[in-house]
Amino acid sequence: MTACAIEGGTAGTATTADPGPEESAGPEEPAGARAPGPSGSAAPGAGRWTRVVTAGPGGRTARPSRTPAPPRDPAAFTLTADGGYAARLTAAPVRAGGQRAWYPERWTLDGPEPYAVPLPLDQPEEPDAQVAPLADGRVLIRRRVADREMFSLLYPTGPGTGELRLGAVVCTRMTLLPPSPDGVSVYGLAAGDHSCVLWRVAGGLFGPERVAEIPGRCGGGVWLDRAGRMLALDRQQPGGGPVKAVAVDLGRQGEVTPLLQIAPDSDDRLLLADPDSGLLLLRSDAPGHDRLGWGVLGSCLPVRFPECLRPADAVATPFAVQPGQMLTPENCAVALRIDGSAGGGVGVWRPAGRRLHRFAAPEGWSAGAGYWSRDGVLHLPYANGATPCAVARLRAPTDEEPPPAPGGRCAGDGGAEPSAAVAAPAARRPVPLGQAPLHRAARPD
Question: 24-48 burial, b if ≥16 CB within 10 A, otherwise e?
Answer without folding.
Answer: bbeebeeeeeeebeebeebbeebbe
